[in-house]
Amino acid sequence: MTQSAEAALGLASDQCALNVIRDACYKYVHFTALPPLLFDLRRDPNEFHNLANDPGHREQMLHYAQKLLSWRMEHEERVLSNTLLTADGPVTQRFPRG
Hints:
Distance between the termini: 60 Å
Shape: flat
Structural class: alpha+beta
Number of domains: 1
Largest sheet: 3 strands, antiparallel
Number of strands: 5
Strand order of the largest sheet: 1-2-3
Oligomer: single chain
CATH class: Alpha Beta
Protein backbone atom coordinates (compact mmCIF):
# COMPACT_ATOMS: atom_id res chain seq x y z
CA MET A 1 0.00 0.00 0.00
CA THR A 2 1.33 3.43 -0.89
CA GLN A 3 1.51 6.12 1.75
CA SER A 4 -0.16 9.48 1.13
CA ALA A 5 2.06 12.53 0.69
CA GLU A 6 0.54 14.03 3.83
CA ALA A 7 1.44 10.97 5.93
CA ALA A 8 4.91 10.66 4.39
CA LEU A 9 5.68 14.30 5.20
CA GLY A 10 3.89 14.34 8.55
CA LEU A 11 1.59 17.15 7.43
CA ALA A 12 -2.14 17.78 7.52
CA SER A 13 -3.89 18.19 4.16
CA ASP A 14 -4.22 21.97 4.66
CA GLN A 15 -0.47 22.18 5.12
CA CYS A 16 0.15 20.66 1.67
CA ALA A 17 -1.23 23.63 -0.27
CA LEU A 18 1.07 25.37 -2.70
CA ASN A 19 1.08 28.39 -5.01
CA VAL A 20 3.20 28.89 -8.11
CA ILE A 21 4.16 31.98 -10.05
CA ARG A 22 6.36 31.93 -13.13
CA ASP A 23 7.47 33.98 -16.06
CA ALA A 24 10.02 33.45 -18.83
CA CYS A 25 12.90 33.72 -16.33
CA TYR A 26 11.97 32.09 -13.03
CA LYS A 27 9.48 29.76 -11.38
CA TYR A 28 8.74 30.25 -7.67
CA VAL A 29 6.79 27.67 -5.66
CA HIS A 30 5.55 28.54 -2.18
CA PHE A 31 4.28 25.76 0.10
CA THR A 32 2.24 26.20 3.27
CA ALA A 33 4.52 24.10 5.46
CA LEU A 34 7.55 23.21 3.34
CA PRO A 35 10.51 25.26 2.12
CA PRO A 36 9.99 27.23 -1.13
CA LEU A 37 11.47 26.36 -4.51
CA LEU A 38 13.04 28.70 -7.07
CA PHE A 39 14.14 27.65 -10.56
CA ASP A 40 16.00 29.63 -13.22
CA LEU A 41 14.00 28.53 -16.27
CA ARG A 42 16.51 29.90 -18.79
CA ARG A 43 19.46 27.95 -17.36
CA ASP A 44 17.51 25.01 -15.92
CA PRO A 45 14.33 24.49 -17.99
CA ASN A 46 13.80 21.00 -16.52
CA GLU A 47 13.81 22.40 -12.97
CA PHE A 48 16.52 20.20 -11.49
CA HIS A 49 18.36 22.86 -9.44
CA ASN A 50 16.46 24.55 -6.62
CA LEU A 51 18.00 27.99 -6.05
CA ALA A 52 15.86 28.90 -3.04
CA ASN A 53 18.70 28.48 -0.54
CA ASP A 54 21.36 30.11 -2.72
CA PRO A 55 22.32 33.48 -1.15
CA GLY A 56 23.06 34.78 -4.65
CA HIS A 57 19.36 34.42 -5.52
CA ARG A 58 17.94 36.05 -2.40
CA GLU A 59 16.82 39.10 -4.41
CA GLN A 60 14.91 36.92 -6.91
CA MET A 61 13.30 34.97 -4.04
CA LEU A 62 12.05 38.18 -2.45
CA HIS A 63 10.84 39.57 -5.79
CA TYR A 64 8.83 36.46 -6.68
CA ALA A 65 7.48 35.98 -3.14
CA GLN A 66 6.21 39.58 -3.19
CA LYS A 67 4.85 39.15 -6.72
CA LEU A 68 2.94 36.03 -5.65
CA LEU A 69 1.59 37.71 -2.51
CA SER A 70 0.43 40.73 -4.52
CA TRP A 71 -1.30 38.50 -7.06
CA ARG A 72 -3.02 36.53 -4.29
CA MET A 73 -4.18 39.72 -2.57
CA GLU A 74 -5.56 41.16 -5.81
CA HIS A 75 -7.49 37.97 -6.60
CA GLU A 76 -8.59 36.86 -3.12
CA GLU A 77 -12.18 36.19 -2.12
CA ARG A 78 -13.90 39.38 -1.00
CA VAL A 79 -17.31 38.17 0.12
CA LEU A 80 -16.87 39.66 3.61
CA SER A 81 -14.93 42.76 2.58
CA ASN A 82 -16.25 45.87 4.33
CA THR A 83 -18.37 43.72 6.65
CA LEU A 84 -18.06 44.28 10.39
CA LEU A 85 -19.24 41.70 12.89
CA THR A 86 -20.97 43.59 15.68
CA ALA A 87 -22.98 42.62 18.77
CA ASP A 88 -26.08 43.36 16.65
CA GLY A 89 -24.90 41.12 13.81
CA PRO A 90 -23.01 41.77 10.57
CA VAL A 91 -23.00 45.33 9.23
CA THR A 92 -21.82 46.09 5.70
CA GLN A 93 -20.19 49.46 5.18
CA ARG A 94 -20.90 51.08 1.85
CA PHE A 95 -18.39 53.58 0.48
CA PRO A 96 -19.17 56.06 -2.25
CA ARG A 97 -17.54 55.21 -5.54
CA GLY A 98 -15.00 57.79 -6.57
